[in-house]
Amino acid sequence: MKVLANDGISKSGILALEKGGFEVITTKVAQEQVANFVNENNVDVVLVRSATKVRKDIIDACPGLKIIGRGGVGMDNIDVDYAKSKGIHVINTPASSSESVAELVFGHLFNGVRFLHDSNRNMPLEGDTNFDGLKKAYANGTELRGKTLGIVGIGRIGQATAKMALGLGMKVIAADSFIPKVDVKVEFFDGQSITTTIVSQSLESLFKEADFITLHVPAQDGYIIGEKELAIMKDGVGIVNCARGGVIDEVALVKALDSGKVSFAGLDVFESEPKPEMAILMHTKISLTPHIGAATGEAQDRIGTELAQQIITLLS
């Protein structure tokens, strides 16, 4: 059987699939050619990440398709229910990238509170001529310890983020309409651990209380954070989105950054991805990454091997 890993797959995933008797194709096929490629090469399984979309047109055009797999959590680039109605298995790897995404959240938080993203832009330009000026410009940093982190969506990634926040000595609050409360276990290198219970509260109360806000939700029909929500937040709040583009009104965000209502934002995902707006890309108060939340070697190894195990189980 053949597997098309159109957005790539780790070496460990390839080896696991080949050991299970599958042929793995890692050729990058253009979106409009995916259906033709699948049919011409008798592909049984299509694996994607966030780039390739598997919609109704591909599903209808590929009657031999047995499995559609998503390397990661969100499934908004796959017509899941329609695929299942056609007898196609749809799989993903919801737990494999949680720690990687959570660490990126804190990368953006540390960037924001210490102006690292902006100083890294300006030190090469002015470090030798305006050292004292830059030192003064970036002198008013903020500690994360003792501050309140509001987590919108306390699923696997939200919980991984909570663990890191607790380890830093932050207060953690959460809002999740599907998870009323959750026990979060923080494990240490020597086998010791502590467990705390986080009880979900309303979004409105979270927005009012949090010093920093991080989003961990799937794609939405509308904004979770817009002008109204920004207005009730604390002055100087920091906002991070490593979840999905389109959950924050970027026009309202820029306005809030310009006014000082929001002190900084950290964005890994964008409304107009893969072509983010220039007002976002050039803003000095935004820490930027190009949708790399799950892009660590460790996460990709876990994703690849987990996908392989699921495929082998389903088709063996």
From TrEMBL:
It holds the Pfam family 2-Hacid_dh_C. GO terms for molecular function: NAD binding; oxidoreductase activity, acting on the CH-OH group of donors, NAD or NADP as acceptor. Residues 107-293 form the D-isomer specific 2-hydroxyacid dehydrogenase NAD-binding domain. Keywords: NAD, Oxidoreductase. It comes from the Bacteria. Residues 8-315 form the D-isomer specific 2-hydroxyacid dehydrogenase catalytic domain. The keyword NADP does not apply. Belongs to the D-isomer specific 2-hydroxyacid dehydrogenase family. PANTHER family: D-ISOMER SPECIFIC 2-HYDROXYACID DEHYDROGENASE FAMILY PROTEIN (AFU_ORTHOLOGUE AFUA_6G10090). This is D-2-hydroxyacid dehydrogenase. It comes from Flavobacterium frigoritolerans.
